[in-house]
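TICKET: design request
STATUS: open
ATTACHED STRUCTURE:
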């Protein structure tokens, strides 16, 4: 009817999934191999902050929309990951996206190459952590929730110990 909430659009699902999954799969490899020059830091983190803002937009949209689900073609055979966005997860996606954008801008100045740390390694852990947090918020089954939660926990552990000299 006229007073029903709008649906969560498919293009926003694809954008949210890309913002969460692409850094998780592709960007860490780029960080690992090409994150050696300080000039590249601002470009990479600005693009990732834009991805975080996309997560915030998806969260804002989901707050007033009907719940929507997505089955990802990842996971075990005959056991794919199921994702769901509703008003509650939309609220937390909004918070995560806005705070992550600020964190990524700050991290561009913090992650500098020096003798004690590896910015490529820290970048890898940071982006796996943030992507896993997005996926934890939208997980719709126990299997996906546990996989995303454990990847978040492991990446946060390695993020902390990667810079233990400071």
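STATUS: resolved
RESOLUTION: sequence designed for all positions
ATTACHED SEQUENCE:
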């Amino acid at each position: 009817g006229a007073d029903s909430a709008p649906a969560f659009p498919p293009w926003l699902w694809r954008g949210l999934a890309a913002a969460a999954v692409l850094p998780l799969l592709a960007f860490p490899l780029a960080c690992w191999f090409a994150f050696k020059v300080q000039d590249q830091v601002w470009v990479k983190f600005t693009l990732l902050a834009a991805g975080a803002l996309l997560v915030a937009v998806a969260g804002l949209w989901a707050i007033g929309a009907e719940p929507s689900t997505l089955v990802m073609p990842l996971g075990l055979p005959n056991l794919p990951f199921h994702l769901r966005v509703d008003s509650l997860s939309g609220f937390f996606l909004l918070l995560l996206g806005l705070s992550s954008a600020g964190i990524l801008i700050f991290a561009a100045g913090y992650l500098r190459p020096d003798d004690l740390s590896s910015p490529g390694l820290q970048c890898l852990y940071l982006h796996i952590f943030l992507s896993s947090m997005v996926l934890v918020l939208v997980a719709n089954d126990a299997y996906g929730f546990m996989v995303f939660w454990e990847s978040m926990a492991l990446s946060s552990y390695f993020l902390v110990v990667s810079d233990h000299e400071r």
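CLOSING REMARK: The chain has a mean pLDDT of 76. The longest helix spans residues 39-63.
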